[in-house]
Structure formats: C-alpha cells, structure tokens
Amino acid sequence: MATVHSTAILGKNVQLDEDVVIGPYCVIGDNVSIGAGTILYAHVVIANGVRIGRGNHLYSNCAIGCCPQVLGLTPNAVLGGLVIGDRNMIRENVTIHPSKHEGAATLIGSDILFMVGSHVGHDCVVGDKVVLSNYVQVAGHVQIGMGAWFAGMAGAHQFVTVGRWSFIAGLAGITHDVPPFVIASGHYPQKVRGVNKRGLLRAGLNGEQQAQIYEAYRKLYRRGSTLLANARELAEQDGLDENVRDMIGSIVNTHRHRFGRYRESLRTE
C-alpha cells in the first residue's frame, strides 16, 4: 500500500503502486503513474501525465515533467509525455521536461544518477546507467548512450548525440556528436582527448575488446588525413569488433550534418 503524507496534493487518476512513498508538500498532477517502491522525499513536483517506473528516489525540489523552456510555448500548450525507467536517483533541484510534441515523449532509462541541479530538456533520450553530475545542462533533442558520464557543469547543445560509455569532462560545451568510448573536453568545438578507460571497465568489456578500441582510436585520431577519411578506411577492414563499428558509425553519421550533429539531419520541424 502506498504512503501519502497529509500535506501532499494529488491530482486526478493518479496511480500509485505498492510501497510508493509520497513525502511532505509534494504535488502530483493528473494522470500520473508511479511504480512500486518509488520514493518522493519532500517538495517534489510531478506534472500531468508523467510515467515513473519502480524503485526511483526523487529528492527535494525536483520538478519533473513541467512545461519545456521554449519561447512561444504557453502553459496551456498540448505537450507530449515523459517516461522514466527504474531505480534512478534524482537528486535535489533536478528538472526533466516532457516532449513538446503531442504523441511523442522524452525517454529516461534506468539506473541513472542525476546529481544536484542537473537538467534534461524536452525530447531527449537518456540511456541506462548514465551519470549527470552537478549542474549538467542537457538541451532538447539530445541522445545520450548507455553509461555515458558527464562531469560537473558540462553542457550539451540541442540535437547532439553522446556515445555510450563516453566521458564528458567538467565545464565542457558539447556542440558536436561524441563517439562511444572516448573522453571529450573543451568547447566550440570540444576535442576528443583519449579513450575512456574507466568506461570500458564499467561496460564490462574483456581485454580483447578493449585492445581493439584502443587500436581503433589510434587509427582514427592519431593518423594523418581527416577523421572521416580515417573512419572510412578503417571501416574497410575485416573482422572489426562491433564496438569499433559503433565508433566508425558515429563518426560517419556526425559528418552527415554540417554542424556535426547527426540528429539535426532528422529534424522535421
């Protein structure tokens, strides 16, 4: 049975699974569903239509599913949804916005750590096991792959793709896509600095897989010629590991758009 504090306010058609805890002064909008074992500690706001999975922890002053910060979008606008997975840790003052398009959704995976003050904009897709450190700011339409790690106060431009198990250094401004398994830092543009060794370990890759990624990195970033030419040359080799092919595919896709943001080429608005 769910536990709801006497000061909490719940809207219409709210579905609370067993062992859900709604703390003091929380406000839950209409048509919200919250999975078993999820805890809202105090002063948490969940807007209309948000779907939250099992075992999540939401700390004080989170604002989840409120109207996106888009000029010309009124509070009465018809919005899309926000779907949050399981076992996420959402710390104080985190904001996550729904899609601004009716029928679409911002998608948040599972086992993610959102540290204090981090923000995820509308229409983003955030994979499992991602870490967003304090005050990381992620603009709309960004896609973040599994296990990617953003250090403190980094920012991601709208429509960028951040590859799985990559590492974004603190204060970085990510304006171009980032391939999987690499370290990126700086801004306008950011630069790839090396292989994310810790990410490879967190991903559970064996020694042979790690060695192939390191060798691919040398061929992509330490040769002459352009990055795209190096990627195309490497793609012609036989027996490439699937992780190396992911790196190559990311680089090729990035170059499909003049600003280095592949998802921009998919825009329909």
List keywords for this structure.
alpha/beta; 11-stranded mixed beta sheet; UDP N-Acetylglucosamine Acyltransferase, domain 1; about 270 residues; about 15% helix
Architecture (CATH level 2) name: 3 Solenoid
Determine the CATH topology. UDP N-Acetylglucosamine Acyltransferase, domain 1
CATH superfamily: Hexapeptide repeat proteins
Q: What is the 3D shape?
A: elongated
Query: Number of DSSP strands?
Result: 28
**Largest sheet composition:** 11 strands, mixed
Q: Count structural domains.
A: 1
What would you report as the Rg, rounded to the nearest angstrom? 20 Å
* Low-confidence residue ranges: none
Helix content class = 10-25%
CATH class: Mainly Beta
Mean pLDDT: 97
What does this entry look like structurally?
It contains four helices and 28 strands. The chain is an alpha/beta fold and 269 residues long. The protein has a single domain (3-204), classed as 3 Solenoid (UDP N-Acetylglucosamine Acyltransferase, domain 1). The strands form three sheets. It has an eleven-stranded mixed beta sheet. Strands 2-5-8-11-14-17-20-23-26 form a nine-stranded parallel beta sheet, with no helix packed on it. Helix 3 (227-235) packs antiparallel against helix 4 (242-254). The longest helix is centred in the last third of the chain and has 15 residues, at 207-221.
Short description:
The chain is an alpha/beta fold and 269 residues long. The chain has helices at residues 197-202, 207-221, 227-235, 242-254; strands at 3-4, 9-10, 15-16, 21-22, 27-28, 33-34, 39-40, 45-46, 51-52, 57-58, 63-64, 81-84, 89-90, 95-96, 105-108, 113-114, 119-120, 125-126, 131-132, 137-138, 143-144, 149-150, 155-156, 161-162, 167-168, 173-174, 182-186, 190-195. The strands form three sheets. The protein has an eleven-stranded mixed beta sheet.
